[in-house]
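Go through this one:
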Amino acid sequence: MEKVGLNITPKEFKQLSKWAEEVYNISVVVDYFCETQPDKEECYNLAPVVKHLRNDADVLNAFFIDHEKDVEI
């Protein structure tokens, strides 16, 4: 696997990883809420935005999961 040249400390990596996980978890909850409340116009309008956010948050969270073994914490 190619090494990622990040100019952050292991402590910063851990904090960013934690935030990425939190953003992903929040997006999962909001996505679920929007999916289960399609009759509410606001949820209907937000659903595509939330779905896109969830996908991006998933990719970001996966990046940190994949690279945490490369960082000595």
Observations:
- The CA atoms of residues 27 and 60 lie 12 Å apart.
- The chain has a mean pLDDT of 88.
